[in-house]
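As a warm-up, study this chain.
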Amino acid sequence: MLLRGRMTRRRGILLGILAVLLLAIGVAAGLGMAGTRGIRTEDMDWNGDGQVGRGEILQSFYAVVAENKRDGSRECTTFRWYRSGEAIRVDCRTVFDAQDAPAE
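Now compare it with the structure written out below.
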């Protein structure tokens, strides 16, 4: 598919904005930000008040990192504040893989 027409100022600005947004998402993913780790919105209650606000959702993209660790069949995700490293919460679950299933 070939784009027709010249690169107007408006198209250039839009292209620049899209490039900056894509770069920001890539940087956030590289830093391990919680918003790029597939965390459900309901799990973004960082202050523990039982409600998830817009601010907490935004914090998941710039202020909260998620570290995944696996020990056998136990998988834990530790949520920490990006700057201080202070742990907010640890979520653990048991994961069963095909290799863990009993032989038939």
